[in-house]
Recover the amino acids of this structure.
């Protein structure tokens, strides 16, 4: 019985790895081809509004609400013993990726695409901008946005029009670009949840989670928040962290939970 579970677990991890590699294809293809998705769509369009809501599902504090809702759904689909392992894996992976993201962004110090665009319009000085604390960057972005739609027609830069929600998001997200924290969150959470859902015979929700992760990365690029390399790196890191944390929790589950079960049975006798 134990051998069958181990075999199934390995197969699921292999399937999860294949899904992860598929997620890598889009940002990798964009990076290798030198294609930028910003500015590609009108940022005051219905499509941009839809992408804004996708990206909001990974924006603090709504990202925490997303995780809680997904955990609640999984609670109804996953056996109790597996659900405990699922929660532990989610907690470990989220803490790990949050710490990595907090360290990597200032280490690389990559400007966001929207900030680079505003700098091209001489609306921001990037070096000065990123030396300031976030609280002082936000009014600078607000001022730049007020001038962005009044770019002289003689420039080669595209005209940018933003909806109120996306303009507010630009003013809120004034940190560095590399890697994409939203993509890191979505990929890690999706892969951890998908493993335990697949283990429980659930297939529809893992498919939805994979599409959500893919759309999250696309939304970050299309809304001018991240470059393709940011999304690619986040997908790589998120996948590795998810697989590592799943493996750690499975080892913990095999060593600790059976021991507790044995102790309980001994006490019962």
């Amino acid at each position: 019985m134990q051998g069958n579970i181990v075999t199934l677990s390995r197969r699921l991890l292999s399937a999860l790895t294949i899904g992860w590699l598929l997620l890598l294809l889009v940002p990798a293809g964009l990076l290798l081809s030198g294609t930028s998705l910003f500015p590609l769509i009108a940022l005051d369009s219905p499509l941009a509004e839809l992408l804004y809501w996708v990206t909001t599902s990974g924006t603090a504090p709504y990202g925490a609400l997303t995780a809680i809702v997904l955990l609640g759904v999984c609670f109804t689909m996953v056996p109790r013993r597996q659900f405990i392992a699922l929660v532990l894996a989610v907690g470990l992976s989220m803490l790990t990726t949050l710490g990595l993201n907090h360290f990597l962004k200032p280490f690389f110090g990559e400007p966001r695409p929207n900030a680079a665009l505003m700098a091209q319009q001489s609306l921001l000085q990037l070096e000065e901008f990123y030396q300031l604390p976030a609280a002082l960057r936000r009014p600078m972005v607000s001022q730049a946005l007020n001038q962005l739609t009044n770019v002289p027609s003689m420039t080669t830069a595209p005209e940018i029009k933003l909806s109120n929600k996306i303009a507010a998001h630009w003013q809120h997200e004034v940190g560095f670009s590399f890697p994409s924290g939203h993509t890191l969150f979505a990929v890690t959470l999706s892969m951890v949840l998908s493993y335990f859902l697949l283990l429980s015979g659930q297939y529809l929700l893992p498919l939805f989670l994979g599409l959500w992760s893919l759309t999250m990365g696309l939304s970050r690029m299309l809304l001018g928040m991240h470059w393709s390399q940011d999304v690619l790196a986040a997908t790589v890191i998120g996948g590795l962290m998810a697989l590592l944390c799943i493996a750690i929790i499975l080892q913990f589950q095999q060593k600790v939970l059976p021991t507790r079960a044995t102790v309980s049975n001994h006490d019962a006798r």
Observations:
- The CA atoms of residues 92 and 131 lie 32 Å apart.
- The two ends are 24 Å apart (CA to CA).
- The chain has eleven helices and no strands.
- The chain has a mean pLDDT of 88.
